[in-house]
Design a protein that fits this description.
2 domains; 6-stranded mixed β-sheet; Immunoglobulin-like
């Protein structure tokens, strides 16, 4: 009986040993699979990072091209500076269209060597024979772009109603003109033959410049 029990225990021990060996082999296979999956994942991530780096390089190249185009446009779109009084030949003439509407046309010729802008309203004062100086108000009109190449001219006008009664209280002698965006003025004679001003100097209006063409 003792011999039989020992044999049974020996058989159980062998079976247990075989079972543990089988389990160990399964763990080894799983580890191998996990290791393979990790290696594949690392290769994939490495490829993605390399691709992202290429994309950034391409984006930077596009940015440089666009910046270059923008700079080129800015340089070609340089605006003309405003005309200086010293570069303008300024003159005033009577240009009344009829006996009731008074108009003085004032021309400004660019005698400088570069293109300039005369856009806007000129400053105008009318001097009277009593030595007073009267600023002239702007008429209701929008300025037009007025660019003058050397030799080109711009015109603006003074507008008023003519007094045919012979009782006008205004006796203009000179017109003081300050070109748009300038601080230096020129003094012109009031045009001979221009009609008398009806009302006061506050009734005279100055209009913006425009090209003579």
């Amino acid at each position: 009986m003792k011999y039989t029990r020992i044999s049974a225990f020996a058989a159980i021990g062998v079976a247990a040993t075989l079972s543990l060996t089988a389990c160990g082999g399964g763990d080894s296979d799983a580890s191998a699979k996990d290791s393979s999956a990790t290696s594949s994942s690392s290769s994939s991530d490495s490829g993605s990072k390399a691709g992202a780096g290429d994309a950034k390089t391409g984006s930077g190249s596009d940015t440089e091209v666009k910046a270059g185009a923008a700079n080129s446009g800015t340089q070609s779109g340089t605006k003309a500076t405003f005309c200086k009084t010293e570069d303008l030949a300024i003159n005033a003439v009577d240009a009344a269209p009829d006996e009731t509407s008074g108009r003085i046309d004032i021309s400004m010729v660019n005698r400088g060597s570069t293109t300039c802008s005369a856009t806007g309203f000129a400053g105008v004062d009318i001097k009277d024979k009593d030595n007073t100086s009267n600023p002239i108000e702007r008429g209701h009109a929008e300025p037009r772009v007025t660019t003058l190449k050397p030799g080109d001219s711009a015109i603006f006008n003074l507008s008023y109603d003519i007094d045919s009664s012979g009782e006008s209280l205004s006796s203009p002698t000179n017109i003081v003109v300050t070109p748009p965006n300038e601080t230096h003025s020129v003094t012109l004679d009031w045009p001979a033959g221009a009609g008398d001003i009806k009302g006061a100097y506050t009734d005279v209006q100055v209009y913006p410049t425009h090209t003579a063409k």
